[in-house]
Each structure stands twice: as C-alpha cells, then as structure tokens.
C-alpha cells in the first residue's frame, strides 16, 4: 500500500497569520481585545486636570502661608485707639516681631494674627498685654491704649470689628456704665466691649435666621411651594450650623479663661503696672464678667441647637411626605396600566372578529351583544384581578 511520507501541513498549525494549533492552550478561545474607552477619557480628563490644578494651587498657597508664618518680618496694618476710644493713629504698619516687642509680646504669639480665615477665638493673657482674637476682631490691649489689627475681610464675613469700633466710644464714655462695669479698669472695659460685640453679632445672626426659619416652617404646609421651602431650609441649616459652631468656639475660649485663675488675676494690667498685682484668687470682677458672657453664649448655642433639631425634623417630615406622594403616583400609574391591560385584551379579541374574514357570526343576531358582554366582563375581570394582586403586594411587610 502506498504511504505518503511528505508531511501534509495542518490547517491548525501556526501560520503567518497567527492561527493557533489544536494542542495550543489558547486554541478554541476568542482573543479578547481591549479597546480604549473614549467616553471614560472624555469624562475623567477634565476632572483630572481640575484636580491637578487645585492641588498645585494648594501647594503654592501652602508655601506662601508657611513662609509668612516663619517670617516675623511680615508687614501688618494696624490702628491705635486712645483711652477714650478715639483713633490716635489710623494706619500704622509694622512687622509681627516689631509690634510684639513694642507691645510686650513674643513674635510667635502673633503668628496667626493675619490669618485669612476667622480662626479659633482665644484670649492670650500676658503680664503687660492682653491679646484678643475673636473671629474677625483681633486687638492688643494695654493700660494706655489699644492696637487694632486691620485685616482684609471678605464681604461674606460678619465684621465683628465694625461692631466693636461703633460701640467702643459709647462704652468708654465717662458717664456710661453703672455698678461693676463703671468700676472696671480700662483694659477690662476693652475686653468687655470686645466680648459684647461678639455676643451681639452672634445673637443678631441667630435672631434673623430664626425669623427666616419660622417663616419657612409656616410655608412648609403649603403644597405649591414645598420644594422652594425645602431649598430654603437647607440654606438655613448651613447658616445655623455655622452659628452654633462659632458660639461653641467662643464658649470654649471663655471656659478656658474661667478655668485659669492665674490668667484672670493677670488681666488687671493697670493694677500690675501701678505695683499692685492681684493674687491668684483675687479675680472676682473678671470672673463675673466672663461668666455673664459665657451664659449668654451658652444660651445662643443651645437655642441654635434646638432650632437646628426642629429644622432637621421638618426636613425629614417633608421628605417623608414627598416619598408618600411619589409612592401614590406610582400606585396610580400601576392601577392605570392594569386597567389599560384589562381593556386591551378584550379589544384584541373584538378586533379578531372585526377582520374581513368569515367567522360564522355574520348571520347571528345576538353575536354583537354576546361579544360586547364578553369584552366588558373580560375587562372587569382582568382589572379586578390585577388590582387585587397590586393591593396584596402593597400590604406586604418586609
């Protein structure tokens, strides 16, 4: 028998075009080709560029702020006030290091005096000066005058220093005040004016927002403006949270001083300058002063917290009502679709008899009545069954 010794090329062996051999592990499998997702790049590339730009801006600003914190030669704009609250020098410029040495502070104590943000309120007490930093109000108090720092404040911030400047001369007038306030030395009257301006600003913001919230809560019962009321309540919530946070920070600053007897005794700068330093336990006037503002701040914070709770409960109630209405609309749509289904099936049957073909009913006198009755009964039956099933699903409890 003739045998062929020449190997016959197998169609399954590797060819120049890349055909796989049957013994190759990948034979019979489709090659997966990954194509670039153009839409992914189109959506993500702008976001990546925006994120990279933001990170670069953060880096540059961080370097600038870091250099300004380290550099005590940063120039600051200030205003000097006299014993009667009048402006002695409206615009003086100096470095942190120079102003600190002149007013009895270390340059590091003024490192955060030119923060762009409002910062955390605090009182720094030194033997010859008191540094007050209350949001946008930052000043140095000595027995012979006040140094007010002029900061670049944005319009969106409440300018506490404007309230302080407007109310200061009235408080320092010789005939103003009675009782304990009239007996306080100059530096404590400045502290009183600063704390009063902060409290007045917080209380004014709280009262105005409370009125707006109450008006919005009254409008929340109107169905035609429920979405607008919901947006207003969300805005009010943000502002209330900000007020509560600021009041809590201010309260913490007062508590920190109240817990430090030595600082309260040191705040009598005039007596110390006259050679009559107070003992650690001798600070009753300062304690009464700080406690009064602490209670006022606590009342504002608690009131804002309670109003915030009412607002959040109202928002949750509105969301629940909207969810119920949305569910009612969905149920109505389902009922309507069930009724349409019940009407469509008999209509299809009636359409079959309406075709121009012989159906052996042409000669019957009762065919029309029977067909209409069957269609109506079929519509009612299918609709009732569908509505029964829908009602059964609605009664399920998960």
Topology:
Elements: H1 38-70, E1 75-81, E2 87-95, H2 96-103, E3 122-125, E4 130-134, E5 137-142, E6 145-149, H3 160-172, H4 180-183, H5 186-219, H6 226-258, H7 261-266, H8 269-273, H9 284-353, H10 367-394
Antiparallel strand pairs: 1-2, 1-6, 3-4, 4-5, 5-6
Helix pairs in contact: 3-5, 5-6, 5-9, 6-9, 9-10
Organism: Penicillium desertorum
Family: Belongs to the CorA metal ion transporter (MIT) (TC 1.A.35) family.
Main location: membrane
By oligomeric state, this entry counts as single chain
| Helix-strand topology string | HEEHEEEEHHHHHHHH
Estimated radius of gyration: 40 Å
User: How many structural domains does the protein architecture include?
Assistant: 2
Per CATH, the class of the largest domain reads: Mainly Alpha
Mean pLDDT across every amino acid position:
77
- End-to-end C-alpha gap: 81 Å
Strand order of the largest sheet: 2-1-6-5-4-3
| Beta content | 5-15%
Q: Detail the poorly predicted runs.
A: 1-27, 29-43
How many helices in DSSP terms? Answer: 10
User: What is the approximate shape?
Assistant: elongated
Helix and strand content put the structural class at alpha+beta
CATH superfamily caption of the largest domain: Magnesium transport protein CorA, transmembrane region
Question: Total strand count, please?
Answer: 6
Would you identify the CATH architecture of the largest domain? Up-down Bundle
Please summarize the sheet with the most strands: 6 strands, antiparallel
Percent helix among the residues?
A: 55-70%
CATH fold-level label of the largest domain: Methane Monooxygenase Hydroxylase, Chain G, domain 1
Keywords: Ion transport, Magnesium, Membrane, Mitochondrion, Mitochondrion inner membrane, Transit peptide, Transmembrane, Transmembrane helix, Transport
Organism: Penicillium desertorum
Family: Belongs to the CorA metal ion transporter (MIT) (TC 1.A.35) family.
GO molecular function, one term: magnesium ion transmembrane transporter activity
